[in-house]
Write a structure and sequence with these properties.
mainly beta, Porin, 2 domains, 21-stranded antiparallel β-sheet, 0% helix
Length: 397
């Protein structure tokens, strides 16, 4: 299972005078997310249905000042079923489940809690990740009896953690974190997300300004961008010898999503995004005599017109967006993807020229056409998360 990671660069140059970045005993945080995807494929005498669900949650509590204990739990479920043959009498199904539990401990450093001008902390931590996977495959055909196979795998690896937290309000914070299973710390797993803080004093109610901030003035141009780094490393350890690694799978990839928008009215933006993505996966069998390896690559390029509406003139404001999209992909099979998408999230105004956005909820649907065999697939996706892929917009005043 790949771990999606995000690296964002931004300038947090505005102080929020009513926020305290306290890490006192009893304070803590929650973060989590949910995702689901359903895909259907229809071709002459060959039908397929795919369902995938993902759920994760992370909780941390400060056992004492600047010392936090916590754990993260991740669950992934997927089911694939196919029907083939003249009467669709050949049927196969595959069910995969994965549960990952990572307890961790972190030490935080930063300005004194009474210093309200610096609402940030940095930290170092250690964790122990345990993954359990189960695969069940079933097959039924007219020429053979029912058959079934089951596989169980377990992975265990220690990890180092380093991160940065900036508290936007007394209820919300932005966290950047990197994780590594090697020492010294290597940047192989990068992420940015939102934290819902607990045990903190309440904030004063925010008033909606009468006049829009500079970022939301009509006729402004916005240039936005975000990029994602994807890395994965998975090892298969036989139950007979836990010190032996039989198979290792590594993945690398990136995606960039530049966009330009124009404020046609106060807080209303229309624009165009052009995403580009690349991924590479290497699967090496260390237990084989010649250590066989299999590699695959994938390129994706897209065009996405969109419209976005910011809700209020506050520094921290919700937004809603809609977009249409076309994407071209090549991984030995060339495909065209057509989609429609609705989303909502939070935007944070930084200074007078920057907007930091995190998408919290999205729903998408569409279809994919494979040019090689003219296959048509339909899909739908629903996602909600506190670890979104952040984007930063620069506003030309």
């Amino acid at each position: 299972m790949k771990t999606s990671t995000y690296l964002q660069i931004w300038a947090l140059c505005a102080a929020c005078p009513v926020v305290q970045a306290q890490t006192e005993k009893g304070s803590g945080f929650w973060t989590g997310g949910f995702g689901g995807q359903f895909t259907t494929s229809r071709q002459y005498q060959n039908n397929a249905d795919d369902l995938a669900l993902q759920l994760f949650a992370s909780r941390g509590v400060f056992a004492r000042k600047n010392f936090l204990l916590g754990a993260e739990v991740t669950t992934d479920l997927s089911r694939t079923s196919t029907k083939a043959g003249f009467n669709f009498d050949t049927r196969n199904s595959r069910f995969e489940s994965r549960v990952s539990v990572t307890p961790f401990a972190r030490r935080y450093w930063g300005p004194p809690s009474g210093n309200r001008s610096f609402n940030w902390r940095v930290y170092l931590g250690v964790g122990l990740s345990g993954d359990w996977e189960r695969v069940v495959s079933r097959s039924l055909a007219t020429t053979q009896r029912f058959s079934q196979t089951r596989e169980n795998r377990f992975f265990l690896s220690p990890e180092l953690q380093a991160g940065f937290v900036y508290f936007i309000t007394n209820y919300w914070g932005i966290e950047a974190i990197t994780r590594s299973s090697t020492f010294p710390l290597t940047v192989t797993n990068l992420g940015v997300g939102l934290l819902a803080t607990t045990g903190r004093p309440p904030s004063r109610p925010m008033e909606n300004p009468v006049f829009p901030p500079n970022q939301f003035v009509r006729s402004n141009w916005l240039v936005a961008g975000g990029f994602e780094l994807t890395t994965s490393n998975r090892k298969l350890i036989p139950s007979q010898n836990v010190a032996e690694v039989f198979r290792e799978e590594t993945g690398r990839g990136f995606s960039i999503n530049p966009s330009v928008g124009y404020l046609v009215n106060t807080r209303l933006v229309v624009g165009l995004a052009t995403p580009v993505a690349y991924s590479k996966l290497t699967d090496q069998y260390l237990g084989a005599p010649d250590q066989q390896s299999v590699r695959s690559e994938r390129w994706t390029v897209g065009i996405h017109p969109f419209v976005k509406q910011y809700v209020s003139n506050r520094r921290l404001t919700p937004y809603a967006a809609g977009e249409l999209g076309w994407e071209w992909s090549d991984d030995s099979f060339v495909t065209d993807t057509y989609r429609a998408r609705l989303s909502a999230g939070l935007a944070y105004l930084i200074g007078t020229r920057f907007i930091l956005e995190g998408e919290l909820v999205s729903f998408a649907g569409g279809w994919v056409r494979t040019r090689n065999d003219d296959r048509i697939q339909t899909f739908s996706e629903l996602r909600a998360t506190l670890r979104p892929g952040f984007t930063v917009s620069y506003v030309f005043l």
